[in-house]
Structure formats: structure tokens, C-alpha cells
Amino acid sequence: MSSFAATSALFTRDLRAVVRSRSQLYSSILTPLLILVFLGNGVSHGLAPSKLSAGNFTAYLVAGAVAMTAVFSSTFSSASYYRDRDSGIMRMFLSSPQSGRTILLGKSLAGVLIGVLQAMVVLAVAAPFVQFDWQYGIPAGLLVAAASVVLLNVMLAGIAQALASRIQTMQGFHLIMNLALFPLLFFSGAFFPVDGLPMWLEVLARANPLSYAVDALELAAYADGTGGYFGLGLDFAVMGVISVAVYALGLARTPRLTWSGT
Amino acid sequence: MSPAASPLIEADAIVHRYGERRALDGFSLSVVPGSVFGLLGPNGSGKSTFITMLAAMDRPTEGTLRVFGQGPCAALRQRVGTVFQENAQDPLMTIEETMRLAGRLFGMRGDSIGARTTELLGAFGLLERRHDAIATLSGGMRRRLEMARALLHDPELLLLDEPTTGVDPEERRALWSALLGSAKGARTVLLATNDLTEADGVCDHVAFIKDGRVVASGTPVELKRGLRDEAVRVRWPGATEGQLAEVAHWPGTGSVTHDGETVHITVDAASELVPRLFALAPEGIRAVSIERSSLEDAYFQHVSRQAVAAEVVRA
Lengths: 262, 315
Hints:
The complex is a heterodimer. Chain A is mainly alpha-helical. In chain A, 74% of the residues lie in helices and 0% in strands. In chain A, helix 1 packs across helix 6, helix 3 packs antiparallel against helix 8 and helix 3 packs across helix 10. The two termini of chain A are 26 Å apart. The C terminus of chain A is likely disordered. By secondary structure, chain B is α/β, with parallel strands linked by helices. Chain B folds into two domains: 210 residues, P-loop containing nucleotide triphosphate hydrolases (Rossmann fold); 91 residues, 2-Layer Sandwich (Alpha-Beta Plaits), CATH 3.30.70.250. Helices cover 36% and strands 27% of the residues of chain B. Chain B is built from ten helices and 13 strands. A six-stranded mixed sheet of chain B has the order 5-6-7-3-8-9, sandwiched between helices. Chain B has a four-stranded antiparallel sheet with strand order 11-12-10-13, with helices on both faces. Chain B has a three-stranded antiparallel sheet with strand order 2-1-4, covered by helices on one side. The two termini of chain B are 43 Å apart. Classes of the chains: A mainly alpha, B alpha/beta. At the A-B interface, helix 1 and helix 5 of A face helix 2 of B.
């Protein structure tokens, strides 16, 4: 009961911190929306991509923008380990009877929820302005999108925690997160379809866990009666296994919560 | 406090290493329940490392540490409150949010957190600011909040790591008044500080720490016993070892130690010593002050004796 109350208190505290940090809240949502508006419209009108439905790159890009929001959000949320360490409040957490796992769980669950909410806001803001087919209908499509966004954020939270356990400084953490996650975004189908790519890129796309999240999001909202690149069943099977495994790995590795590494 | 009371803290030959550096090096100490115990030593002497172990946030590399009869473990933290040398606070949180979060982490119920928060914020003069963000508080207020937060779960052992650093004298007095008033003799307090005057005023037992080990321990009265009546502090930049040795041999002179440009001399009668000093070094002495012997003089005497003993062993 005490651990649950402590996890809940840390969860609430981290949510409150994000709500107060307006710049973090807005930038995680606005950056993907700006990419949608400028890159989407620019490519749609400037290059007129013939492989996309009605040449509408903006609609295609929504799934990638949602995935990108999750990446930004998980990076910002996980950076709170460093902020808490540097502000000193981590010492208060560690001097309590709670285990390091309880502290991590409370903070990471808050990060997951924030990431899910931000990603869904991007989808909700974009949806009225682009041409979606909603092949399963809007309620079911939103449910599929929400489920894939939850799994994606759980996976990213695990990756971020595992990295934070190894990296001493916040600057280093941001650098590694960007280096690790942006290439994954590039060949996930977020910016261009992965079918018809050179073999080496297609192999990378198949090995990339983000590809399955983007595929599920495309199927939920954008796709026009197709089965997608992998198919919804494989998307959720892969995401489910990888998300649980990576999150468990992240929780198993205690981040460097103090400067001495204890 | 019974002399036969079993120790609440028992440290036996503790060694703690940070890489190659030994922060604690054969550290042994015993603290009985209900005492206000001072750990006195310069920066880097190992005080904070020992506090971190008592808070069960780290373990000795070698040696044995027992608190409440058990080794450092997570369950032990329930009985310990810690005021860290640097504030353990998030500047964006309010005072009340900080207290509520701390209470939850220590397994307290909402209603008892509320009642205890009101009581402690009242005692530490923060009640009117309870809804303010910590970033808006003065340094002294933040230290008071740190104290209130550490006392929230009514710990049996309170660890204070230089709690009044950066606090002005008036605020310091108020802080100690609230702190010791809350203890009512039932709580054991361990104070790590390099402010010997403060320790002399509040501690009933002290240990002098140097280079990661205890060089002397006892009540302030015991440690000052054997000191001469008066302490003379002489600002004497060019004092040579020969001059200091000569002073040490004068009748009525106790210890002669130096700390940078300042020479500390304990003596039976300063009125006889001072003219002889000026005769010995008419150009060298810049300033002289005379006080009753204090814990600071005892500290210099014991630490100096330890250094001399170490030199003898090396020779």
C-alpha cells in the first residue's frame, strides 16, 4: 500500500511538473504540428507524390508526427531524472524507505501518460484538417491509435530509462537519445513509405520497432482499405513484446540517481 | 540517559572508498539514544559520507555499521530523518506539495500529513508561506523547510549535515529552538558541522573527525578538560617552528597549534604570555585576541596531537 501511495505521489508530482513547464508541454506538440503543416504541404504541393492517396503527404505524415511526439515527450520526461538529481530532490526520494524501483515506476508512468496525451493531442488537432479514411471507423480507429501510442510510449520510456542508467549528464542523455531515436524515426515509415525501398533500408525498417507503431497508426487513420505494411496483428504482437521487455529492462537498471552513482 | 544504554549507532572500523580515495578510514563511533551528538571536522573529513551511510543510502566498503541494531537497509530509513548539506527540494514545488510528497514517500496517511505539516510549518515559521513555490523562499527559509521535512515522519534519529550553513545568526537561533523543542529528549540527533561554537552550544557529546577517522570523542566538558583557562589567538604570518616550540616550553603554556597564519595557544594567564610573545617576535605579530578556552581550542589540541602522533609513527 505504501509503495502504491508513493508511486502515485511521484506520478502526480511529475505530471504537475510538466503542466507547470509550459515550454516543454507546448514544444513537444507544436514541433510535430509545424512539421505537418510545412513539410506536409510543401511536399504535397511542391513534389506532388504520386504514390500517396490524392498526393496528400500531410495526411500520410500524421502517423509519423504522432510517433515523433512520443519520441520528444519520452526524451523530455526522462530528462527529469537529471533535473531531480541536480535540484536535489532526488536525495529526498532516496532517503525515504521506498525502493529505487518504486521511484522509477512513479516517474516513468507519469512520462508514459504525458507522452500518450501529447501524441493523441497531435492526432486530434491534425485529423480535422487532413483527409483520413478511418477504415475501421472513427471510434475503433482512435482506439487502435491510442493502443499503439500507449505501447510506443511504454517502449520509449524503457529505452530512455536504460540510457539514463548509463549516462551521467543531461546533455549527454539528450545527445544519445537524439542519435538513437531519430534514425529509427527516419526508416520507420514516418516520413516515407517503407515498401519499395532498397533492400538494406527495408531490412532496417523491419528490424525497427518504431515501424510497427507507425504502421498501426497508418492503419488506424490514414490507410484506405489496405492491410498495411506489416498488418495490425503483427504490429501489436511485436510492439507488445518489445514494449514490455524494454520497459522491464529499463526498470531493472537503476539510473544514476546521484552524482556518486548510488 | 543511562550510561548503560545500548548504542543506537555503532560504527566499527569503517572504511569507505570513492575510487582510490578513502573518505572514511577506520572510522569508529558509538552514539547512545537521546543524545545530541556532534561530528566535528573540516570539509572533506568524512562527515557527509558517514551521514549518507546512516541514512542507508550507501554502505561501508569495510567494517561494521549498525543503526538500531541493524545494518543499513531500506526499512531503516523509516526511522531516520535527514537534513542534507544541500537542500533536497524542487524549486518549482510549493512548501505544502513538498511536505505532502515527503509524507507519502514515508508511508503517512493524508490526514496525518496535513496535521503534522501544519504543526511543523508553524514551529518553523513557514505556515503563512505554505502555498508559495520554494523558488520564492530565502535561503534561511529553505533550510527551515528542510528541517520541517526531515521531521515530518517523526523520526527517532535525526541526521543534520551542516544544517545552518548560510543561515544568519538570528535565523540560526530560531532554527535550533524549533529543532530542539521538537525533540523533547526523545529523539537522537547527529549533527555534522565545522562550526565548533554552534556544536558547543547544542551538543551533549562530540567527536572530532580528521582524515576519515575519529581522533577524540567525549562530552564538550571532557574534551575541554586539561585545557588551560584562556585561549590566545595570534595572527602571526611568519611564525617559525622554532619560535612555536619555544612558546610551548614557557611555564603555564598548554597547547600551541597553528592553522594558516593563526597560532592558537592555550595558557593559564594570557596577561603573562602576550608581552613575552611581542618580545619574541616584535615585528611578526599582527593581532592578538584572548578568550576563555572553547571546544575549538580542544579541537585544535586533539587534532594537532593526532598529527604529531602520525608524524612520530612515520618517523
